[in-house]
Amino acid sequence: MMQPELASDLKNHFLVAMPGMADPNFHGSVVYIADHSEKGALGLLINRPMDLDLGALFERIELSLAGTDIGASPVLFGGPVQTDRGFVLHRPVGNWSSSLRVTDEVALTSSKDVLEAVAAGTGPEQLLVTLGYAGWGPGQLEDEIAHNAWLTAPADAQLLFDVPVDKRLARAFALLGIDPAFLSSEAGHA
Is 185 strand, coil or helix? Predict the structure, then answer.
């Protein structure tokens, strides 16, 4: 049975997939949890680059990134839900049409106005853009954690915004003080 105090304590945390994660959408992934309540959880995979960079994405939505150096940044596969929709994780929080304030520093925005501001050079200082998100129904994430699918760690903004995408999994394990080579996909009792 889920303890009531666990209902929202994974917001602003990372989920790090255990080596035995069978779901190909999540194998080897680091997920940032942007919202978690008794209604479920919403997160973004932060280490799955797509074959699309921000420059190409902005062209598709008819915005120009001229004068900025973020065009080569990868667009990330954020998860298997609504993969045709963009989500922008950013800091500072700012004031956008459709934002979820995760912390005092970080917000998740799904409205185009944040991208228009980026194109105009007035957007958030740091951001990552995903297509899609990961979602869990009530109690589903807690159940997956109880069955050793995920390790959890408090989120680190440096890992989110400064660490190269291909180094995020190793850095997330390092946050936990774990060498993934020593992890087993099997749960057991000593």
Answer: coil
Residue in 84, 76, 79 with CA at minimum distance from that of residue 49: 76
- Residue 173's H or E segment, with its range, is helix 168-175
**How many residues are recorded in the chain?**
190
Here the tokens at position 55 are 């420059």
Beta strands in 102-149 (DSSP E): 107-109, 126-136
Both structure tokens of 190: 């000593």
Distance CA 73, CA 66 (A): 14
Residue type (1 letter), 88 = V
Question: CA-to-CA distance for 15 and 75, rounded, in angstroms?
Answer: 20
DSSP state of 5: G
Cα distance between residue 159 and residue 171, in whole Å: 7
pTM of the complete model beyond 0.85: yes
Q: How far is CA 81 from CA 45, 107, 136, 162, in A?
A: 11, 19, 10, 26
Q: What does the DSSP 8-state code read for residue 104?
A: S
Question: What gap in Å lies between CA 81 and CA 43, rounded to an integer?
Answer: 10
Residue 127, amino acid: L
Which pLDDT does position 186 carry in this prediction? 55
pLDDT tens digits for range 17-39: 998 888 899 999 999 999 999 99
* Tokens coding 68: 């900025």
Distance of alpha carbon 15 from alpha carbon 55, whole angstroms: 29
